Amino acid sequence: MSGNTLTDRYVHEVVRRIPADQRADVADELRTTIADTADARGAADPEAAERAVLTEMGDPIRLAAKYADRPLALIGPELYPAYVRLLKLLLTTVLPIVVAVLVVIEVLDSNDVGAAIGSAIGGILTVGAQMIAWLTVVFALIDRSRHRETAVAEVDQWSPDDLPELRQTEKRDSGAALAIGWNALVLALIVWQHTAAPYRAGNDRIEVLDPALWSGWIWPILVGLAGVVTLEVIRFATRTCTMLHAGLYAVAELLVTLPLAWILSQHKFFNPAFLADVNNGWTVPDAVYTIAVIAVLLVSGSEIVSRFREARAQS
Predict the structure, then answer these.
(1) Are residues 251 and 273 in contact, defined by beta-carbon separation less than 8 angstroms?
(2) Cβ proximity of 199 and 274 under 8 Å
C-alpha cells in the first residue's frame, strides 16, 4: 500500500500535533477506525468511501486537540471567566488611574489642553492595548502549561455570592431626579447672575460670569441645559431610556460641554472685574483651567456613555 494515501496523510496531520508517547496508539486507532468505517459502507469505490469517512471525521487539527486535551482557542472555557473578570478590573480601575497620571504630568509640563487630551487618548490606546495583550499571553500560557489543572482549580471557585446585584429602579429614578435638579439649578443660576448682578465690587454690582458670553457662547449652553432637563424629566416619568433618547441626550450634553470647554480653555468663563476683586491681583494658574477642561470633557463623556449603556440594556 502506498505511504501517501489520504488516510496516511490524515493520520500524520493528527499525530504530529499530540505528545510523542500517544502517537503510536492514536495512529493505530485512527487507521483501524477509518478502514472499518469505510469497509462497513460497502462502497464500490474504496477511495470515495475513504474520502467520505475523512470528511466526516473533520479537520485533523481539531481532532488532534481532542486527543491532546488542548484548547483550540487562545484561552479555554475553564479560564475564560477569570480572564474576563481580571481584564474588566484592569480596564476600569488601573487604566483610568494610569491615564489620569499621564494627563496630570502633561498638564504640569506643558499647560496645553490639546497635548493633555492627546496624552489621554494615547494612554488609553497604548496602555490599554498592553494590558489586553499581556494578560491574554499570560492566560494563554497558563492554559497550555503543566500547571493548568492547578490554575483552573484555583480560579474555578465561583459561588452565588459572586453574582452582581441588579441595578434597582429606585437608584435609576434617584439619579434622574438628581440630574434634573442639578441641571435646572445651574440653568437658573446662570440666568439669575446675569439679571441680578449679585456680586458687589465697591459701589458697583457686577456679574460673576463674563458678560461677553451673552453675545454668543452662553446660548448653546443654555439650550443644552434646557434639553438635558427636558430629557431627564421624560426619562424619570417613563422610566425608560431608548436609543433615540440617548442620542438626543448626547446632542444636548455636547451643546453644553463643547462651548464650556472652549470658554474655559480661553480663560473667558469669569467676569474679569469679578476675578480682579476676588483675587486681589493674584492670577489663576493656567493649569487650573486645563484641569477644568479635562474634567468637563470626562464627566460629559461618562454621562453620554452611561445613557447609551442604559438604552442598550433596556432594548
Answers:
(1) no
(2) yes
Last residue of a domain, one of 28, 44, 68: 68
SS3 state of residue 199: strand
Q: Give the C-alpha separation, 144 to 209, whole Å.
A: 63
Q: For the segment 49-69, what is each residue's pLDDT rounded down to a tens digit?
A: 888 888 888 888 878 878 877
109 is in which domain, residue-wise?
A: 80-162
CA–chain centroid gap for 200, Å, is 48
Instruction: Output the nine-digit C-alpha cell for 45.
Output: 469505490
> Closest Cα partner for 35 from 50, 52, 14, 13?
50
State the Cα–Cα distance between residues 265 and 108, nearest whole angstrom.
15
For the chain, what's the residue count? 315
298 is a domain residue: yes
Instruction: Give the whole-angstrom CA distance, residue 176 versus residue 178.
Output: 5
Q: How many domains does the chain have?
A: 3
Distance (Å, whole) CA 12 – CA 10:
5
Among 275, 311, 313, 267, residue whose Cα is nearest residue 292: 267
Tens digits of residue pLDDT in 111-141: 565 666 777 788 788 888 888 888 888 888 8
Residue 205, phi then psi, degrees to nearest 5:
-105, 125
Q: C-alpha angle 48/58/12, rounded to 5°?
A: 85
Q: How far is the C-alpha of 118 from the C-alpha of 227, rounded, in Å?
A: 30
Place of cell 480572564: 83
SS3 209: strand
**DSSP strand E in 195-292: where?**
199-201, 204-206
- What DSSP designation does 73 have? S
Query: pTM of the prediction?
Result: 0.51
Cα separation, 221 vs 227, in Å, equals: 10
Q: Are residues 41 and 131 in the same domain?
A: no
